[in-house]
C-alpha cells in the first residue's frame, strides 16, 4: 500500500453506467434518487437497506491519483477511476442508509452521459471524513497539474513571445 493511501470500509452497491445527465442538478437529491430507484428496479445495481449492508466485503482505497474499490475476499478490483475523471461526489442518507456517489466525468462522444459509482458507508461521520480526504486529494492533484503546466507552458510561451517580437 502506498503511503498516501486512505481506506474506508464500504459496501459496493454498483455502477450506474451511461446515464443521461442532461439538465440534471448534479447535487439534486430528487434527481439522484430518481436515477438510483430506476437502477435498483432494473437490477443495474443491487438493492440494499441499512439492515443488510456488509461493510466487511469491500474497501475503498483513496490513492494519490485514483480511487479503487477492492473486494476484500478475492482481493480483486471491483472498480477503479483516476482522480481527474471524478466530476463530483457526495453523500446522502436515505431510509437510514448512507449513500456515497462518485459522478464520473462525461464520455468524450457525448458530454451528457456519465457513470455513477454508488457505495454505502457505515455512517455520516465516515462520509464527512471521506469527503475531506477527497477534497484534499483533488486540491493536491490540481496543484500538481498547475505546477506541471506552468513548468512546461510558461518557458515556451515566453520564448514564443520573445522570438515573435524580434
Automatic annotation (TrEMBL):
In Swiss-Prot or TrEMBL terms, this protein is called Protein CBG08404
Q: Which domain of life is it from?
A: Eukaryota
Q: What is the lineage of its organism?
A: Eukaryota, Metazoa, Ecdysozoa, Nematoda, Chromadorea
Q: Which InterPro entries match?
A: PH-like_dom_sf
Question: Which organism encodes this protein?
Answer: Caenorhabditis briggsae
Amino acid at each position: 500500500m502506498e503511503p498516501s493511501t486512505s481506506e474506508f470500509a464500504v459496501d459496493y452497491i454498483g455502477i450506474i453506467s451511461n446515464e443521461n445527465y442532461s439538465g440534471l442538478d448534479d447535487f439534486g437529491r430528487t434527481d439522484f434518487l430518481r436515477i438510483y430507484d430506476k437502477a435498483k428496479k432494473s437490477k443495474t445495481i443491487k438493492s440494499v437497506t441499512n439492515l443488510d449492508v456488509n461493510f466487511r466485503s469491500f474497501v475503498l482505497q483513496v490513492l494519490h491519483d485514483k480511487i479503487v474499490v477492492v473486494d476484500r475476499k478475492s482481493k480483486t478490483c471491483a472498480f477503479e477511476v483516476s482522480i481527474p475523471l471524478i466530476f463530483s461526489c457526495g453523500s446522502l442518507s436515505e431510509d437510514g442508509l448512507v449513500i456515497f456517489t462518485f459522478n464520473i466525468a462525461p464520455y468524450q462522444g457525448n458530454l451528457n452521459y456519465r457513470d455513477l459509482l454508488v457505495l454505502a458507508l457505515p455512517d455520516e461521520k465516515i462520509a464527512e471524513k471521506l469527503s475531506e480526504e477527497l477534497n484534499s486529494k483533488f486540491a493536491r492533484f490540481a496543484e500538481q497539474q498547475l505546477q506541471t503546466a506552468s513548468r512546461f507552458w510558461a518557458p515556451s510561451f515566453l520564448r514564443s513571445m520573445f522570438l515573435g517580437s524580434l
